Amino acid sequence: MATRHSQGIARLAVAPAVIVLFLWMIVPLVMTIYFSFLRYNLLNPDMDGWAGFSNFYYFITDESFPGAVFNTLALVATVIVASVAGGLGLALLLDQPFWGRGIVRLLVISPFFIMPTVSALVWKNLLMNPIYGLFAFLQQLVGITPLDWFAKVPLLSVAIIASWQWLPFSALIILTALQSLDEEQKDASAMDGARALSYFRYIVLPHLARPITVVILIETIFLLNIFAEIYVTSVGGLAGNLTYLVYFQGLLNFDIGEASAGGLIAVVLANLVSIFLVRIIGRNLEI
Amino acid sequence: MARQTSPQRKLIVTLIAWTIGILMFWPILWTILTSFKTEQDAVLMPQLFSTGWTFENFGIVQERSDYLRFAMNSIILAFGSTLLGLVFAIPAAWSMAFSPSKRTKDTLLWMLSTKMMPPVGALLPIYLIFKDYHWIDQHIPVLVIMFMLNLPLVIWMLFTYFKEIPVDILEASRMDGAGVWQELTRVLAPMALPGIASTFLLNVILAWNEAFWTLKLTDVHAAPLTVFIASYSSPEGLFWAKLSAASTMAIAPILILGWFSQKQLVRGLTFGAVK
Amino acid sequence: MSRIELKAVRKDFGNLGVINGVDLDILDGGFTVFVGPSGCGKSTLLRLIAGLEDLTSGQVLIDGRDVTELGPAQRELAMVFQSYALYPHMSVRNNIGFPLKMAKQPEDMIEAKVRKAAETLNLTAYLDRRPGQLSGGQRQRVAIGRAIVREPKAFLFDEPLSNLDAALRVQMRLEIMQLHKSLGATMVYVTHDQVEAMTMADRIVVLNQGRIEQVGSPLELYDHPKTLFVAGFIGSPKMNFISGSVAARYGAATIGIRPEHIQLGASDGGFTGTIRIAEHLGSDTFIHAESPELGSITVRATGNIEASPGTALALGFEASRVHRFDAQGVALK
Known about the structure:
The complex is a heterotrimer. Chain A is mainly alpha-helical. Chain A is built from 14 helices and no strands. Chain A starts with a helix and ends with a helix. At the A-B interface, helix 1, helix 3, helix 4, helix 5 and helix 6 of A face helix 1, helix 4, helix 5, helix 6 and helix 7 of B.
C-alpha cells in the first residue's frame, strides 16, 4: 500500500539490518564449515591441509561425545518437563484471585532476570554446598546425610538450576494465555453443564496447546546452548553438553578443526527444532 | 469474575501462592540477606538474620575486584548494544510494518531464524577474528557482537508494536507534507514510545545477562558483571558473604528493571506467537 | 481551487486490476462524489489522486500540470480519512497546525490560522485537548480543520462519516456542504452510501469493478440511469427489475420501475399481486408483494396505508417512468 517512492525508501530502511544479520549469520557459518574440513590446531601450526571428514569422525568418536549428547538431551528434556509442568501449575494458581497477587507474581518471575553466572554460583555455594549449604542443613535436620550435589549428581544439579531459571518464563506465558481465555466461553461451558474438571480438559488445555508448544520450542533452543551454568559450576568434565565440548576442543585444546565440526553438529541439532518454531510463528504472522 | 469466590477459598489460595512465591524467590532473598552478614554468620545455617549487620562486604568486593568498572562495562555493553540495535531496528521495523512487500514475511522469519543459530556455530570464527584483530576485551567489538545477537529480537518487538499503529495516521502526515524523517521522528516515534521503551528495557536485561560471548570475548578491560561473578567461582576459601554481596550488586539493577518489563517478556521472547 | 483530470488511469495490485482505465474531469469548485459498492475501487481512485498509491499507467493532472510522479506532499491536496487519522500524541492545536509546521510557516502565522480554523469549526474550547478526549464529531472537525488550514488545491474525503452515528452523520453532512459553499473549494468525496451521494454531490461518479458506470448530477442518475447497475444502485428502496414477457411487451430485455412509480389500485391494464410484508415508516409504506406476472416486487406508497399480508393488490406502472434495458444491461432510448 504505497508508492514506488516510499517503497524505495522502505527497502532502503530495511537494508542495513538485513545486511548486518546476513553477515552475522552467513560469514561465521561459512567459516565454521570451512574450518571443519581443515586440519587446524592453534597449538600445532605445522599441521595444515584438508582433513576431509576426519574432524567430524574424531569429534563423534571422542570418548566424551556420547556423554555430551546424552547430557545435552537429558538437560533439555528434564528442564522442559519440570518447567512446563511447574509453569502450568503456577499459572493456574496465579490465575486465581488471592491477596497480593501482584507481589507474588513479581516474586515468581524474578529468577528469570538473574544472570546465569549468578544463579549458578548462588545455587552451587549457598544452597547446594554439601557442608554449609542450606540444603545440607535441611537434610541434616531431618536426619539424611547431606548430598554432595555437584559431585554425585552434576547433571541433575545443573538441571535444577536451569529449571529454576526457566520456570518463570513458562509460567508467565501460560498465565498470559490463560488470561486471554474468553470469559464468555467459561460462562457458556457452565451453561452447557461442564464441571470444573471437564472445563479444564476440553476448554483450557486445548487453548494452552499452542503457548505450551511455543514454550517448549523456545526453551529447547536456549537449553541446547546452555553454557554459563556448566562453566561456572565447573562440572564441564562430568556433565558437559555439546556446547561445552565444542568450547573445550576449540578454546582449551585449540583444535579449531574438530571444534568446528562439533559446532556444525550443534547447528544441525538446533535447526531441527527451530524449523518447527519458525513455522508456528510464521503461521501466526500477519503482514 | 462472574461469581464471587468464597473467602475461605481465597485465604487458602493466598497461603499456597505466597508459600510458592517465597520459595521461588528464596535463593535471591537468601543471597541478599547473606550479603549483609559477616563471613562467620554466612556459613551458620540456622540463622536467617545476621547477628551483626554489616555493609563491609560491599566495600571489600569493590576494593578486591573493582566492581564499579565491571558495572560500568555492563552498562556500556547492555545500553550501547541496545541503542545501536534501535538505530538499525526502527527503520527496518517501520519499513516492514507499514510498507510490506511480498518478501517481508520471509525476511522477518529469516531474521528470527538467525536468533535460533546456536552460538557454538559461530564461536570459533568470531573468536579467531577477535584474536587476529586484537579485539578481545575491547569494548566496541564486543558491543557490536551483542548488538547483532539481539537485533532480531529488537526488530520483532518493534514490528509487533508498530503493527498496532494505524497506517492512516502515517499517510495523513505524508499528505500534510511530512518527509520520511519527520514521519519517523514526529509521528511514529512519539506514538510508538511505550513500545520502544519496552523493547529497550527487555533488551537491556537480555544483554546484561548474556553470558556466552562475554565469558569468551572479554577478560578484564571490557568485561561486564557476568565475568566479574564468574571470577568468584574459583574455590579459594569461604567468602560467601562477599560472593553474595557481589551477586546482589550484579543483579539488583536488572532485577528492578525486570519487574517493570515482565509484561513485555511474553511478547518479546515469543516473537508475538503468544498474545 | 483546482481542476483535477484523470487520463486512462489504471491500477493493478499484482494481477488484479482494481482501476481499469478511468478518464475523468473533476471540475473546479465542484463537489464530486465517488460512489459504488465495496471493492469497486472508489477509495483506491481517491488514493491515486492523493498520491498515496502509484498509478500502474495513465496520468493525473492538477490544473493542467502532470503530478503523476509527485509524492503526496507536493500535490498540495488535503485528505480527511475514514478513521480521522489524528495524531494521538498532539493537542488539537498541534494537530491542526501540523501541516503548516511541516511547511515551515512562522509560529505566529500558524497560531493565527489555527485559531481561525478552530473558530469556523467550533473547536476553540478544545484546542488544548488530545484527540482521545474528544467525541467522534469533534474528532471529525479536527480532521477537517487540519485539512482547511493548508488552503489546499482540493479536499479529498475518504468515507469521513461512516464512523459516526446516524444523527451526527446528518449534521456533519450539512456542515461539510456548508464548508464547501463558504470555501468554494474543489471537493472529492468517497462514500458507499447512495443517500450521502445524492444529497451532497453536484456530480456523482458511479464506479463498478474499477470502471466508471456513469457520471452525472444526482437527478440525472435517478431519472436517466445509463446502465442496469446504476439503476439498481441509485435510489432506495431499490428499483424493481422485470424481465421475460412483460419486458418484451416494452421492447426490452429487462425493464426497471422504481417502487415509488408503481400505483396501487390501478385496475386498468395492470398487474395483480399479494402482499407478503409491509413496512410502515409513518411517512411511507413499503409493500413487498408477490405477483404472478412480475415476481417479487416492492411498492412505495405515500402515507400510512392499510396493508395486511395476504391482501390482493392491483398494480399499475407510470408508463413514462419505465426504464428499458437491452440484454447487455445498457439503457434503451
